[in-house]
Write a structure and sequence with these properties.
Blueprint (H helix, E strand, L loop, with lengths): L23 E7 L6 H22 L46 E5 L1 H11 L4 H15 L20 H15 L20 E9 L5 E8 L6 H6 L4 H9 L8 H8 L9 E16 L2 E15 L9 H11 L5 E8 L12 H12 L4 H13 L4 E5 L20 H15 L2 H24 L1 H9 L2 E3 L11 E2 L2 H12 L3 H11 E2 L9
Parallel strand pairs: 1-2, 1-7, 2-3, 7-8
Antiparallel strand pairs: 3-4, 3-6, 5-6, 9-10, 9-11
Helix pairs in contact: 1-3, 1-11, 1-12, 2-7, 3-4, 4-7
């Protein structure tokens, strides 16, 4: 299914309306941490488990305009809509509650960026994401080179970058939406009205020194509501002009850029346009013009302050969303980053402390806690192992063939943490908030919920349509189009509605 721009969008009044649940945005972020991203996924898997319990306790949902959806077979995060085909590649061994139905934005850095892409851009279940993550880890971290920059003085990365790109491409091939043929050409952009993805990388110079962050957005930045409300400062206006939407970037490029950890993988050279330069003067009336490609060199976004992307994601929303919206539930997931012992000589202790400071996610967590204490509308949750995870480094994968020991160590540590009564209560509170928000949205607007949960849209196929099949995401707008443009009456309109209704299609196991 080719990506198209809708011919209309849901209009949003700039007048605050605290009763509209669609104006409250919910956010999920993932720290970077290499293989310990598996630990993050265990947290989200447990959160979805509590969400499932909460949803089942409350029973089936009903929404305005949901009568045509048929009898609901079981409660899922799609409810009251029917669950589509091929949501999971795991048969019946998955939880039918998807993070992309509870969060408007999913952000990540480094391997957290990979997770954000899988859960947000490809709308995967957590169980499927865990399956893909383990497969990816084994295919990459289980096959290091014998000689590399980290064990001898040679300029060679620890892992084969081309092999890593192929592994990423294989994941895209299995998970891209039905109708696409080439995994190399799957755009990062998501259609309007669906869960959005925000991924962070670093721009570096020729010496691999970090210049600034590079934000990848699966959505276009819309600052017009703020400009109209005259609540945008000069600095925000400048920042907005310099911002970038999804553009022509592809999913594999975003995945490669955010995970290009120095000494582990080569940086990504991303072509961003053409640069025109003036060459030497051949004659007084003739001067050569040289065209060359403009590129960015990008590396792992986790090396620096954005290893925990929560602050960048929150700041993004503060200057990007209209003033009548607010950030509500904000869930930040860590990777149980190991806390190293400061032992040995003073010289080495200082070096170790400086290395640990780079990419430390805790200052960002403390910043977000401070914001939540000041803002009544912000409900902030942080899921992480406060004592760290000993013995599991960025790329630990033991034994190399299966990684079972590494997985077992992370799972045992996780089970101990989430078995504590305080953590159970904390996670259940978060689950209850998210379920309440989802159900309130269903009750408020079934049309918006169909779009958000299913990617529902209407594509006109009436023969005399001069717009070559315009795409409409609002059923009311499509009805208006059928009546005004094609002069259809009641029966004709209803037939066209059923015939022209489409949605985001999952790719089966054997596409």
């Amino acid at each position: 299914m080719a990506s198209q721009s809708p011919i209309s969008e849901f209009g949003l009044s700039l007048q605050p309306n605290p009763q509209d649940p669609w104006l409250k945005k919910h956010v999920l972020t993932f720290d970077g941490g290499g293989i310990r991203g598996y630990y993050s996924l265990l947290f989200v898997q447990r959160l979805m488990h509590y969400i499932e319990q909460e949803e089942n306790e409350r029973g089936p949902t009903s929404g305005i305009g949901a009568s045509h959806l048929g009898e609901q077979k079981r409660v899922t995060s799609f409810s009251p809509c029917d669950e589509p085909r091929d949501v999971s590649h795991l048969g019946t061994c998955y939880t039918p509650f998807l993070p992309c139905h509870y969060f408007d934005y999913i952000a990540g850095t480094s391997t957290g960026g990979l997770i954000a892409i899988m859960l947000g851009r490809f709308r995967m279940t957590v169980d499927d994401c865990i399956y893909e993550y383990r497969h990816l880890a084994g295919s990459v971290f289980g096959r290091p080179r014998y000689f590399h920059a980290m064990n001898c003085l040679i300029s060679r990365c620890k892992y084969n970058t081309k092999k890593f790109e192929q592994v990423i491409t294989n994941v895209i091939m299995r998970r891209m939406e039905q109708g696409r043929l080439n995994p190399q050409n799957v755009p990062f952009v998501t259609d309007y009205g669906l869960c959005r993805v925000f991924v962070i990388a670093n721009r570096v110079d020729s010496n691999r020194v970090v210049n600034e962050h590079r934000f990848f957005r699966s959505y276009e930045v819309n600052i017009r509501p703020r400009l109209l409300s005259r609540q945008m400062s000069f600095i925000e206006n400048f920042k907005a002009k310099d911002s970038r939407g999804p553009g022509d970037v592809y999913v594999w490029q975003v995945a490669r850029a955010t995970t290009a950890a120095p000494m582990y993988f080569e940086p990504l050279e991303l072509i961003t346009g053409t640069k025109v330069t003036r060459g030497p003067i051949i004659s007084p009336f003739n001067r050569t013009i040289c065209n060359s490609l403009r590129t960015e060199r990008l590396e792992d976004g986790g090396l620096g302050t954005a290893n925990n992307p929560s602050k960048e994601m929150y700041d993004e929303l503060m200057w990007q969303i209209p003033t009548n919206m607010a950030v509500s539930t904000f869930v930040s997931v860590g990777t149980a980053r190991p806390i190293r012992r400061t032992t040995g000589l003073e010289f080495y202790r200082v070096i170790r402390a400086e290395i640990d400071r780079i990419g430390d996610p805790e200052p960002t967590h403390q910043h977000m806690e401070g914001l939540a204490a000041k803002k009544q509308t912000l409900s902030y949750f942080r899921f992480n192992e406060p004592d760290g995870l000993a013995g599991v480094e960025f790329d630990t994968w033991q034994p190399k063939a299966t990684g079972q020991d590494t997985i077992a160590k992370m799972t045992a540590s996780f089970n101990t943490l989430v078995g504590r009564a305080a953590m159970v209560k904390y996670m259940r509170k978060c689950a209850k908030e998210l379920v309440t928000a989802r159900r309130a949205r269903v009750e408020a607007s079934m049309t918006k919920w169909e779009r958000f949960a299913l990617g529902r849209y209407f594509c006109c196929d009436v023969e005399d349509c001069s717009d070559d099949g315009p795409r409409e995401i609002d059923e009311a707008g499509f009805r208006f189009h059928l009546r005004e443009r094609h002069k259809l009456q009641d029966e004709g309109v209803e037939a066209a509605i059923e015939r022209c209704r489409h949605q985001w299609e999952y790719r089966g196991i054997n596409p």
